[in-house]
Specification:
Elements (H helix, E strand, L loop, with lengths): L16 H8 L4 E5 L5 E2 L14 E5 L3 E10 L7 E8 L4 E6 L12 E8 L5 E7 L1
Antiparallel strand pairs: 1-2, 1-3, 4-5, 4-7, 5-6, 7-8
The protein binds zinc ion.
Zinc ion binds next to loops.
Amino acid sequence: MSQALRLPSPITNPENKAFWEAAQDNRLILKVCNSCNESHYYPRTICPHCGSDSTVWVESQGLGEIYSYTVMRRGVEVPFAMAYVRLNEGVSLLTHLTNCDFDSIQVGQKVKVVFQETQDGQKTHLFEPL
Ligand SMILES: [Zn+2]
């Protein structure tokens, strides 16, 4: 059993307040643009694709696949794996991988979201293999 990773607390602001409130409820939500229908992450008021200010929150299925990853073992208290996960909704996010053997991680591996408390009790998203 590996030692639990101490996750840093996220910085919250008015633009991402709803995102972190949903995380506290074990839900991953994304912003989708009403003008161009593209979703984006991290959450912003203005769509990064077309500049529209008409964006809405939608619930993500929390499913995706590993696009790239790196495992940190040296010079850290607890080894950890970071990955870019491409969600089924089409957006990529930088995230920790958890509940997996770091030696068996593969690009293209299917993953799903899980939530873990950070240092101040705010939950954040991580991904684990399906
Ligand atoms: Zn847009």
